[in-house]
Structures are given as C-alpha cells and as structure tokens.
Write a structure and sequence with these properties.
Strand order of the largest sheet: 2-3-4-1-5
Mean pLDDT: 84
Strand content: 5-15%
Oligomer: single chain
Number of helices: 14
Shape: elongated
Number of strands: 7
CATH architecture of the largest domain: 3-Layer(aba) Sandwich
Low-confidence stretches: 289-327
Helix content: 40-55%
Distance between the termini: 22 Å
CATH superfamily of the largest domain: P-loop containing nucleotide triphosphate hydrolases
Order of helices and strands: HHEHEHHHHEHEHEHHHHEEH
Length: about 325
C-alpha cells in the first residue's frame, strides 16, 4: 500500500467511538433523540468520526442536514441555522415550504428572507429559536434527521444559544444532534459550549491518541516496508499520537529521504519541534497543550485535515527516495 487516506488514519483505533455513534444512529432511526459532542485537539480525528456518522445515518435512512462553523464567520448571526435549514426550505415545493413554515414556525421565513422581504436576524431571539425548533420538529416528522455540525467552536453566539435551546427540547423527536468541538480554541464562547456539553442528553466522545502499534501501521503503509521500533517510538513521541500530525511527520520524513530505521529516529524527532505541538494526554479523556502553540499552528493543521478528508495523501515514493531506485 503506497499511501493511506487521512480519513482512514484518523479512524484507526476508533472502534468504541464508532460503536457509540452507531448506537445513537440506530436509536434515532427507531424514533429516539440523541446528542453527541465529539471534542479534542486539532488533528485527533473529530471530523472523520462525524463523517463516518453521517454516512452511517444515511445508510439507516436518516436525512442529514450539515453545517460547519467558520473562524471568520463568528460575527455572522444565524450562520449555523442558515446552513442547516435554508437548503431544505429552498429546495422544497411551495406547498411543502408553506407546511414547514406554518405557525409557529412562520418567523423562519423572516429570518432567512424567504417571505419576499430582506432577512431579519434581529428579530426577537426567543421567537426565532422557537420558530426554528418547530421547523426542525416538522422536518423530523417526515423522517428521522441528523443535524451534523462540524467545528461548533467557531459558531456565532446566536447559533450556540439556539443549539442549547434545541437540545433541551428534543424530547421524543427522532433527531440526532452531532457536534465536533476543538478544545481550548482561542475566542470560543466556552460558557455556551460548556452549557451544551452539560445537557443530560449530550454524550461526549473524546478520542484518544494513537498507540505505538497504530503509528507502526501508518509508518509501514507510508514507507511500504517494516519500520523499526526506534523510529516508530520517535514518531509517536514527537506527535503525541495525534493522527494528522503523525501522517504529516511521516510524509515530511519521506520528503527528506529518511528511512524508517533506528539510525534515523533522532532525525525524525528533530523534524517535529518546528511544526508539531507537544500534546499531553491526561488519560481521563483530555489533552494539555502549551498555550504558546495555538497561535502559530493549530488552525492551519486543522484546515489541512479538512482538505485531506476526501483524498489519499500523495504517493510519490518513486519520484523521491524510498524505496530507492534500482535502475
């Protein structure tokens, strides 16, 4: 195998997390509400788990409505609600839209500008939240739905307040609310996020770092040969077992013509300090990272993961150094 996809790598050793997601999907398909919050540092595989849940939900017949927070969109009110609910409303027939937006959901038309007027996000917030709730309930009345929201830490405050409002009122609605959140993200509204996480319905999933065995598997796939233990340990220590960082370190090692052998262990370790954080796994479902790391690195690495989720990492061994050419 000449390459490994970012999605596959970030789902290594995730059997228990996937099982919890599958259980929630099955429960929602059977008519019960569920809420999942997947949280952890950049590169740990939150988006991969959410993507796997989306695929599983579609297989079980759930209608998936998706949204993603944006770092530069935190000041845009109702950003998450628009991503979730505008597409089904715009695509609906006139009769179906009228049914969905009947009282008490009428205010949604004003919020999104679907009633022939300009959108009005400044409407009374309780009225808006109540209207959006009833829209969600009516959508779920047609078939179970999954609301999949990636990077919820970058959501605007109005959207976060709505999510808190919604999760407290799901009751018996066949709705699966699935969120991903990066921990310790500067600028995130920690109070609103903590409030959502503390709701009784919300089940929090915190993926752990990769084991030495998983890093060994990635190194073997990346170099197409059996890596030596010292090299694997150096990679694991340098990246803290974070899947995305491990993939990037291995790719950088190949680019620099290193081999997965003991004598190159110190060299590969030296590649890490300028581009990778020193995460500390607490062993109780959490991570610690020196605060000085966040401004320089975590955002760009997370963006690389989003870009890589749908494709394999480039296979360039024949054009580079390992295995060496024989002709």
């Amino acid at each position: 195998m000449g390459g490994v996809s970012a999605r596959s790598a970030t789902l290594l050793e995730r059997a228990s997390e996937l099982a919890l997601l599958e259980e929630a999907i099955a429960g929602t398909a059977a008519g019960a509400p569920h809420a999942i919050l997947i949280e952890g540092p950049a590169g740990i595989g939150k988006t991969a788990l959410l993507w796997a849940a989306r695929q599983g939900a579609e297989r079980e017949g759930l209608r998936v409505l998706a949204a993603r927070g944006g770092e530069l969109e935190r000041e845009l009110s109702l950003g998450i609600e628009r991503q979730l609910f505008e597409p089904p409303l715009v695509r609906a027939s006139q009769a179906a839209r009228a049914e969905l937006l009947a009282q008490p959901a009428t205010a949604v038309g004003r919020l999104f500008g679907l009633d022939g007027t300009d959108s009005d996000p400044s409407a009374d917030e309780y009225e808006s939240h109540n209207a959006l709730y009833w829209l969600c309930a009516r959508l779920a009345g047609h078939s179970p739905i999954m609301l999949a929201i990636d990077d919820v830490h970058w959501s605007d405050a109005t959207s976060l307040r709505f999510l808190g409002y919604l999760v407290r009122r799901l009751d018996d609605l066949p709705v699966l609310l699935a969120l991903t959140r990066r921990v310790d993200e500067p600028g995130a509204d920690e109070n609103l996020l903590a409030g959502i996480a503390a709701e009784p319905l919300v089940q929090v999933i915190r993926p752990g770092p990769l084991s030495l065995g998983a890093v060994h598997e990635l190194a073997r796939a990346r170099f197409e040969t059996e890596p030596q233990d010292g090299f694997v340990r150096a990679c694991h220590q340098a990246t803290g077992g974070i899947p995305l960082f491990t993939l990037q370190l291995l790719e950088e090692a190949r680019t620099r013509c290193l081999r997965p052998v003991e004598i190159h262990a110190d060299v590969v370790a030296e590649l890490a300090p300028s581009g990778y954080p020193r995460w500390s796994w607490t062993g109780s479902g959490g991570y610690r990272l020196p605060p000085s790391w966040w401004p320089s690195m975590s955002r760009c690495l997370a963006r690389k993961l989003k870009f890589a989720m749908s494709a394999s990492w480039p296979v360039s061994a024949k054009a580079r150094c390992w295995p060496p050419r024989t002709n």
